[in-house]
Automatic annotation (TrEMBL), chain A:
Coiled coil: 331-393
Organism lineage: Eukaryota, Metazoa, Spiralia, Lophotrochozoa, Mollusca
CCDC22 N-terminal domain residues: 1-107
Keywords: Coiled coil
This protein's name: CCDC22
InterPro entries in UniProt: CCDC22, CCDC22_CC, CCDC22_N
Residue ranges of every copy of the CCDC22 coiled-coil domain listed in the record: 126-608
UniProtKB/TrEMBL annotation, chain B:
Name of the protein: COMMD8
InterPro entries: COMM, COMMD4/6/7/8, COMMD8_HN
Domain COMM, residue spans: 131-198
Lineage of producing organism: Eukaryota, Metazoa, Spiralia, Lophotrochozoa, Mollusca
Annotated source species: Acanthosepion pharaonis (Pharaoh cuttlefish)
Length: 641, 199
């Protein structure tokens, strides 16, 4: 019981109960201390409970607190008997039971959380939980009091939200601000400067709602930034493929896009066969005009662009003519216009068809001519080659013919020439060999050297690779170990609160050793009793045997002698008496056991009577209350009358 | 029938124009300049309500104020088409206005060429049928569901505001992180094709 009491007292101390150091067991607990400890335990179990820590002086208040505590403990799940008397008139056993129950129920946060590994998701979840808890704890502020839904709050300022009453959608308006004012070398238009100075409203006044200003500014800035980045990207790409300056590239791109747009428009016009409404074609014409008007004056230099311009202007004029032709008739009435237009279209169509057929014919002719030209060229090539070959053959034949008249001499000369050249060849071959041998040697050596170096380099590379892998492994290990270290440090920090763990274990070990000792003793006693049993058995056996032997002997003699017969009778009597004695001893043993059981029962009964006595004590209190009540009633009565 | 009505409508339009120019001529020159600047600043239709009638209520009644706005907007559109020469602007302005007014209006337009051009460009690029006007997003972290205790899946809520023939429609979608990645990938691919077309 001492151990249990010490554990209870220790855990109560960890719950910040002020217990004097000389209090060693629950016997020494006063009613005040019991109430305080119970209240602390209840608060640790359920933080929202409102239980007073102290017993007041007044009897009725004491009673109320006692019943409240009992009620709360029952709510937590205590199944034993409990009431106000348990606290006010304490019984050591009941109190111990209650405290053992309560201390088991006290949540052990630190032990639960410590075992989990600190993964990212757990950390996140814990952060969320902390945030939610702090938000739940914070008081609700009515919207007309708080100025904004987000407030900086706390000793270490933390953004804290409540409600979304003034959350604003991200809505941007186009903004305007002075452009080009920083560049002093460029003159700003006078009217524009005037506008900037006097008329352009501030940026913060340009949106419909003041909340949209930041959104609009951010949007404008982001748009500028992305445009700039994209442009730079394109430029860098262009710089890789072809080296052009930024302006040139800009112009080129403009040209390209314009060309493409023009192509599309022209195709569209041709497809619809200029049957579009006059208004539409006029618009198109105007647009084409405007495209050129913007384009042309800016571009200087670059013959390519000039060429292109000329081309386009020509084509453009054509289109303009066509559209103008259709436009001119617009003054006439609708009917006439249509007839006229149809006639014109017919004529133009015919013309176009004529031109097309002509173009086709010319194309085919061109193709034929080009083919014949190619054929001719090939033929001339072949002829030239043949000519060259024939010329060479002719030269050789001419020489041999020249040599023919002085044939013998010439043959001898030729022989000598042939011999000379053969000798020269041989000498050259030997020379070549002389040169070749050392060179080949050198080459082989160098080759070997090279292969050696290569293999060395490969080895070194492999070594480097292995080293690098090792480095990586070690780095990973260090990282893992650092993390482990962190985890362990946090664990350690959490652990420091529980110093008594070793005390617990020591106590448990002591208890275990005690139990072992007791077990040993029990075994010893058991062996003793077994030995005794054996002895008893052997003795009874012996007794039986001796009795039968003596019985036989005496019985034999009893036939001969009268006195012996008497002694035989005595023997039988003795035997019977002895047996009776043994049975009585057995009976006494049984009775003794029964007596012990009864004594235990009596002790229990005594305890119960003590309880009853206490209840009677509390009954006296009840009487006191009743008297008080009567007294108050009487006073009230008096007041009434 | 429509063809017969055409000239009538033209004539009424002309009349309206003349009355509007008269209204302009009635006001003082600085006021005309400021209103023109204001219109150029708010050519975008969205921000036209940003202009405040209170600023000009001493010069025009509400009706004539709207007329002036219309006539100036038409003028700016036309001036965009032709490329801004002084004579063209003068001819667009009609006969009612005195020359000092015309001169000043031309100066204003000349000084704000870049802005007008930008607006015209924006209008042309927005010529397609459906156009993304605005979008909004937020990320929710789903902690658990009715079957799983621990889900921890981030979900992205995307709201698209789309302009469909001047009618705004809102499309909301919920995306997991993989869906969002595929969406971004397809958008990037689209951007790439656009880049290929323009460069």
């Amino acid at each position: 019981m001492e151990e249990v009491d010490q554990i209870i007292i220790h855990s109560l101390r960890t719950l910040h109960c002020e217990i004097d150091d000389d209090v060693k067991s629950l016997k020494q607990f006063s009613a005040d201390l019991i109430v305080l400890a119970a209240a602390k335990c209840l608060k640790a179990i359920n933080n929202d409970l409102d239980v007073p820590n102290k017993l007041p002086a007044g009897m009725s208040a004491r009673y109320r607190i006692g019943t409240a505590l009992a009620h709360h403990i029952k709510e937590v799940g205590y199944s034993g008997e409990i009431g106000y008397q348990t606290f006010l008139y304490s019984n050591e056993n009941d109190i111990r039971k209650i405290f053992m129950f309560l201390i088991e129920k006290v949540p052990k946060e630190s032990t639960e959380t410590r075992d989990e590994p600190l993964s990212a998701s757990v950390v996140l979840q814990r952060a969320i939980a902390v945030k939610l808890a702090s938000q739940l704890k914070s008081p609700w502020i009515p919207p007309y009091i708080r100025r904004a839904s987000a407030i900086w709050k706390g000793s270490s300022p933390e953004l804290y939200h409540q409600g979304v009453s003034d959350a604003v959608g991200f809505h941007a308006y186009p903004l305007q601000w002075p452009v080009g004012t920083t560049n002093l070398s460029k003159k700003i238009h006078k009217e524009l400067r005037n506008y900037y100075q006097s008329l352009l409203p501030m940026v913060i006044q340009q949106t419909r709602r003041p909340e949209d200003v930041p959104a609009s500014l951010l949007e404008a800035h982001a748009a500028d930034l992305t445009a700039q980045q994209e442009w730079e990207n394109e430029l860098s790409k262009a710089a890789l493929t072809s080296r052009v300056s930024e302006q040139e590239y800009h112009h080129k791109k403009q040209e390209k896009i314009r060309k493409r747009v023009l192509d599309h428009i022209r195709q569209g016009i041709e497809h619809s066969n200029i049957q579009a409404e006059t208004q539409g074609s006029q618009d198109l014409k105007q647009m084409l005009n405007s495209i050129y008007a913007v384009d042309v004056p800016k571009v200087k230099g670059s013959r390519f662009i000039h060429n292109e311009k000329l081309q386009f202007t020509k084509e453009e004029e054509k289109i303009a003519q066509i559209t103008e032709a259709t436009v001119s008739g617009s003054a006439d009435t609708e009917e006439e216009q249509r007839v006229k237009r149809e006639g014109e279209i017919q004529v133009l169509q015919d013309e176009i068809n004529d031109y097309l057929t002509k173009i086709d014919e010319i194309d085919t002719e061109m193709k034929k001519l080009v083919g014949s030209i190619q054929q001719m060229q090939e033929e001339t090539e072949v002829n030239k080659r043949e000519n060259l070959e024939k010329e060479e053959k002719y030269i050789v034949k001419k020489r041999t013919l020249d040599l023919l008249p002085d044939a013998d001499n010439n043959i001898v000369k030729l022989q000598s020439v042939v011999d000379n050249s053969a000798q020269r060849l041989v000498s050259l071959a030997t020379q070549w060999e002389d040169h070749r041998a050392p060179l080949i040697k050198e080459y082989r050596e160098l080759k070997e050297f090279n292969t050696l170096r290569e293999s060395e380099a490969e080895k070194k590379l492999e070594e480097m690779k292995t080293f690098r892998e090792k480095m990586k492994e070690i780095a990973a290990e260090t990282r893992a170990k650092e993390e482990l270290h962190k985890q362990l440090v946090t664990k350690y920090e959490n652990m420091t609160k529980d110093v008594n763990r070793s005390a617990y274990t020591r106590r448990i070990m002591e208890i275990v050793s005690n139990i072992k000792k007791q077990n040993n003793e029990i075994e010893k006693v058991l062996t003793d009793t077994k030995a005794l049993q054996k002895e008893i058995n052997s003795l009874t056996g012996k007794l039986d045997r001796t009795f039968t032997v003596t019985d036989e002997l005496v019985f034999k003699d009893a036939k001969k002698d009268e006195s012996v017969r008497k002694s035989y009778k005595h023997l039988a009597a003795l035997h019977e008496n002895c047996e009776a004695l043994i049975t009585t001893i057995h009976d006494t043993g049984v009775i003794m056991r029964e007596i012990r059981v009864l004594e235990d029962q009596i002790e229990n009964e005594m305890k119960k009577t003590a309880c009853v006595l206490q209840k009677t004590k509390s009954a006296e209190d009840f009487d006191y209350f009743m008297n008080n009540g009567k007294y108050f009633k009487r006073i009230m009565y008096h007041h009434h009358h | 029938m429509a063809d017969i009505e055409q000239p009538q409508r033209d004539s009424t339009e002309k009349k309206n124009k003349i009355t509007a120019w008269k209204c302009v001529a009635k006001a003082k020159l600085p006021v005309v300049k400021s209103v023109l600047h204001d219109i150029i600043g708010h050519l975008n239709k969205n921000s036209r309500p940003c202009m405040r009638y209170e600023d000009y209520k001493e010069s025009w009644s509400l009706q004539s104020y709207w007329q002036v706005l219309d006539v100036f907007e038409n003028l700016l559109q036309e001036v965009c088409k032709d490329s801004f020469t002084k004579d063209q602007v003068f001819s667009c302005l009609g006969d009612v206005l005195p020359d000092t007014y015309k001169e000043e209006i031309y100066h204003v337009i000349d000084s704000r060429r870049e802005d007008i051009r930008k607006h015209a460009l924006a209008k042309t690029t927005a010529v397609s049928q459906r156009k993304l006007v605005n979008f909004d997003w937020k990320v929710n972290l789903v902690m658990s569901s009715d079957k799983l205790g621990l889900v921890q899946e981030p979900l992205c809520n995307l709201d698209f505001e789309i302009n469909n023939n001047d009618q705004k429609t809102k499309t909301s979608i919920e995306l997991t992180s993989e869906d969002l990645k595929t969406l971004i990938k397809s958008l990037e691919a689209a951007n790439k094709t656009v880049m290929q077309y323009t460069s």
